[in-house]
Specification:
The protein has about 350 residues and is α+β, with helices and mostly antiparallel strands. It has helices at about 1-10, 50-70, 115-130, 150-160, 165-170, 170-180, 185-190, 235-245, 260-275, 280-285, 290-310, 320-340; strands at about 15-20, 30-35, 40-45, 90, 95-100, 200, 210-215, 220, 230. The longest helix is centred in the C-terminal third of the chain and has 21 residues, at about 290-310. The radius of gyration is 21 Å and the shape is globular.
């Protein structure tokens, strides 16, 4: 594999070292470097992303727009192979891309300070703001119905009819909770029909590891643009809230550790609004807490649906894995709802 990649980019394999990096669940990533050159090599998971060409298209059109309008903005783009390709296809192995490593940068896997949440939210907000005039219809869909809450609820209802009987019984409390909060779906459907909510260039995967930081903790740029698609601000803000507010992630089995940290909520909203205050409508601004509810609720549904269908999508590393994940997200949603009246959207 690596010999073909090196050949495509005219890299001398005897002079470069390759090291796996990151803990991404979807794509595999390596750092390829020698004393003079430093790259990031990534294999695209085509089991998830069926059309890697759509990813390449979106990155290309956005890169051209940003280069023309904001030439000083740091935006990572693939390195072209010797023959001009930006994606290298290896038979039986899949698609690969190479990008330049950003010097003096690093990623983090867990938000440990409110300042980190602020910086990440600021960068994701800046990214959307700079592209506010970009013709969003030029973007292709890389993951169909990725944040379609209506569809996720329909899949949940189907699982209630055809899912595993024993798992349905043990999940009754969570099922009842999800049904009782269907108003979150209703609000989403209203948003789709509301002209006050603008369809924008949206990252859709705003976990903290998709931000590059410098050595002082300052945010440099956003990365990993596979899910760059048309969307609504609730997706980006909601995903930050889902993954930044609690000190533990969805794998945590001890639900007593799941809390909503007020200062992190404020950091996310302040950081995002530092760039997007002039872009969001007044009605959009009132949905900052809803954004968190939207994403947490959807992820709870997806985990529980997969559990009821015997783990056919996410898989399971142990018995009841997705049941635990679903319960984790249900508790996180409960904690957010409990604080809904005190977590204001006024900045």
């Amino acid at each position: 594999m690596i010999e073909e990649i090196y050949s495509a980019y005219n890299i001398d394999k005897d002079k470069f070292e390759i090291t796996p990096i990151g803990n991404g669940l979807i794509n595999q990533t390596w750092r390829v470097k020698n004393g003079q050159h430093d790259y990031i090599l990534q294999r695209i998971n085509t089991n998830v992303f069926k059309s890697p060409e759509a990813i390449a298209h979106n990155v290309n059109v956005v890169a051209k727009y940003l280069q023309q309008k904001y030439p000083s903005y740091l935006f990572t783009v693939p390195v072209k192979a010797v023959d001009g390709r930006e994606l290298i296809f290896l038979e039986g192995d899949g698609y690969y891309r190479l990008t330049n490593y950003v010097k003096n940068s690093h990623t983090i896997n867990t938000v440990e300070e409110a300042a980190q949440a602020y910086e990440a939210a600021r960068l994701f907000g800046q990214f959307t703001k700079l592209l506010s005039d970009f013709p969003v219809a030029e973007l292709q869909i890389t993951l169909s119905d990725f944040h379609n809450l209506t569809l996720r609820y329909q899949q949940f209802e189907e699982a209630l009819q055809s899912g595993d009987g024993a798992r349905l019984n043990e999940s009754k409390e969570m099922i009842d909770f999800i049904k009782a909060n269907k108003n979150i779906v209703d609000t989403y459907e209203n948003i789709l029909q509301n002209p006050a909510f603008k369809l924008r260039v949206t990252h859709h995967d705003t976990k903290i590891s998709n931000v590059l930081f410098d050595d002082t903790g300052k945010g440099l740029c956003v990365i990993d643009l596979d899910t760059l698609m048309p969307g609504y601000f609730i997706s980006d803000v909601g995903d930050m809230m889902r993954t930044y507010l609690s000190p533990v992630n969805e794998e945590e089995k001890d639900f007593s550790k799941i809390v909503v940290r007020d200062e992190y909520f404020k950091a996310v909203w302040k950081g995002y609004m530092s760039e997007m205050a002039g872009e969001l409508s007044e009605e959009e601004k009132t949905h900052c807490v809803y954004a968190g509810k939207f994403m947490i609720y959807m992820q709870a549904i997806r985990f529980l649906t997969d559990h009821l269908k015997n783990d056919i999508y996410y898989g399971a590393k142990y018995e009841g894995h997705n049941f635990v994940r679903a319960g984790n997200q249900v508790v996180l949603l409960q904690r957010l709802i409990e604080k809904e009246d005190t977590l204001g959207c006024d900045i």
